[in-house]
């Protein structure tokens, strides 16, 4: 299985830390942030990863190279103009081939069993499978509504039309890690900026099977100086384990 790590963001909320260093290269313990995601993928057997780049992208490429130092193969997609989470994936869809593939947000750190995520995707024969988690601030992150079988019904209030027999069992947040079938990209516009969530909503409105995989492990979005500092403390105190 192949994977893509989305790493083209500007890191505006982390300035001045990101004025001369791109967010994916900010150190978290002994590794740059992006490498935590690469090592997670490698631990679960993924050896070929696509990384999209924009702001200070050449630094990322120079630091990570071809991936051999991590015993992986890395490819890069440079975006002169940001394409968003949908357009960025669509731009390299030929890279993924015919099978399902993983996508990770490059500015998150997660203790997540990717093998189980993929197994869930295959078992449920889903078009896509989203890694979901419980969070007391779910409204802040955006609500993903699921039924009693963890099937995704709506994202941010959009998706499957409400049915009389709907039982919304849970309201969770999307952790930025998912498995996608190539068919998912059929309705992502080519060459323009878009969000992959728009594609999710399009398919949900038509009754497609989108599964939720709930995980209880560590997760953090490293998007602000406060959260970045917290992740650093979590590594120092052993709450977040350094990947091998």
Task: Describe this structure as you would to a colleague.
The chain is an alpha/beta fold. It has helices at residues 33-43, 57-64, 84-91, 93-96, 114-123, 138-141, 196-205, 225-237; strands spanning 3-6, 27-28, 31-32, 48-53, 73-78, 101-105, 108-110, 128-133, 144-146, 152-155, 158-159, 170-180, 210-214, 219-221. It has a single domain (3-235), classed as Spore Coat Polysaccharide Biosynthesis Protein SpsA, Chain A (Alpha-Beta Complex), CATH 3.90.550. The chain has eight helices and 14 strands. The strands form three sheets. Strands 1, 4, 5, 6, 8, 9, 10, 11, 12 and 13 form a ten-stranded mixed β-sheet that branches. Strands 2-3 form a two-stranded antiparallel ribbon. A two-stranded antiparallel ribbon has the order 7-14. Helix 3 packs across helix 7 (196-205). It is globular, with a radius of gyration of 17 Å.
Features:
244 residues; alpha/beta; Spore Coat Polysaccharide Biosynthesis Protein SpsA, Chain A; ten-stranded mixed sheet; 8 helices; 25% strand; globular
Summarize the structure.
This protein is of the alpha/beta class and 244 residues long.
What is the strand and helix layout of this fold?
Elements lengths: L2 E4 L20 E2 L2 E2 H11 L4 E6 L3 H8 L8 E6 L5 H8 L1 H4 L4 E5 L2 E3 L3 H10 L4 E6 L4 H4 L2 E3 L5 E4 L2 E2 L10 E11 L15 H10 L4 E5 L4 E3 L3 H13 L7
Parallel strand pairs: 1-4, 1-6, 4-5, 8-13
Antiparallel strand pairs: 2-3, 6-12, 7-14, 8-12, 9-10, 9-12, 10-11
């Amino acid at each position: 299985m192949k994977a893509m790590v989305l790493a083209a963001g500007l890191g505006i909320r982390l300035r001045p830390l990101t004025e001369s260093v791109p967010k994916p290269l900010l150190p978290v313990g002994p590794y740059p942030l992006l490498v935590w995601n690469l090592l997670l993928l490698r631990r679960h057997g993924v050896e070929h990863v696509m990384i999209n780049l924009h702001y200070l992208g050449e630094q990322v490429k120079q630091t990570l190279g071809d991936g051999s130092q991590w015993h992986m193969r890395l490819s890069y997609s440079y975006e002169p103009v940001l394409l968003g989470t949908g357009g960025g994936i669509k731009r390299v869809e030929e890279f993924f081939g015919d099978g399902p593939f993983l996508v990770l947000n490059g500015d998150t750190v997660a203790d997540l069993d990717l093998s189980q995520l993929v197994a869930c995707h295959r078992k449920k024969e889903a078009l896509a499978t989203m890694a979901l988690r419980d969070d007391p601030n779910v409204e802040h992150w955006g609500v993903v509504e699921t039924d009693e079988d963890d099937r995704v019904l709506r994202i941010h209030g959009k998706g499957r039309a409400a049915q009389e027999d709907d039982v919304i069992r849970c309201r969770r947040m999307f952790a930025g890690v998912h498995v996608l079938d190539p068919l998912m990209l059929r309705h992502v516009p080519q060459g323009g900026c878009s969000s992959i969530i728009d594609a999710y909503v399009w398919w949900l409105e038509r009754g497609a099977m989108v599964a939720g995989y709930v995980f209880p492990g560590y997760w953090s979005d490293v998007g602000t100086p406060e959260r970045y500092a917290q992740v650093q403390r979590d590594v120092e105190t052993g709450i977040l384990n350094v990947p091998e």
